[in-house]
Amino acid sequence: MIAQNLNIVNENINKAMKRRTRVPKDSPVKLVAVTKNHDINAMREAIDAGVTDIGENRIQEARTKFDTLGRQSIWHLIGHLQTNKAKYAVKMFDFIHSVDSVKLVRNIDHEASKIGKVQDILVQVNLAGEEQKSGVAIDGMNELLHEADSLEHIHLRGLMMIAPNYENRELCRPLFRKMYEIYIKTKEIPFKRANIDYLSMGMSHDYEIAIEEGANIVRVGTAIFGPRQY
Fold this sequence. Notes:
- The chain has nine helices and eight strands.
- By secondary structure, the chain is of the alpha/beta class.
- Helix 7 (173-187) links the parallel strand 6 (154-161) and strand 7.
- The two termini are 19 Å apart.
- Strands 7-6-5-4-3-2-1-8 form an eight-stranded parallel beta sheet.
- Helices cover 41% and strands 17% of the residues.
């Protein structure tokens, strides 16, 4: 079932890429399979079916899985990261998508320096201004970007956004379009260390629209694994 679902998702990604108008149609899209609340067997099945990138939301759950699976895949932390858990995140995750404050990025840099690592990160932007969601506000984004760029053990790779879970997913489109414009402007900033090449947005209910509007990382869980097992 997972392999079949994955084929459908990949087909939808390819179709959405062909519908893009502002991004080259052959520009690749990275699929991150979100394994929150799915067990090791499901993860192995997805990896066997071709998944190369795994996304986890919580440090504690990810630690158990990482200890079992190791580096069979590229690991992405897509959930909110508490400052005091940065030391665990830098040991496990290749990408941290959810960097949303100067304090957090400094702590990630500090912990990465201890193990001689340069940590790839994305800055999470709360474009919709939702109080219940993490992410830096637009007016604080530049300060965070430049702080990240100044740190020796941080490699800033792009931006991340979570759209509201609208019943009508088309309501997400203006936000995705605006986020792509912000991403393009961010690419034009003359950073010292950063390489702005990723825009992570879109989940199971809206990833096709996100791709149409410029996303090149999508985070898909339910459409691959089915409903989460709580």
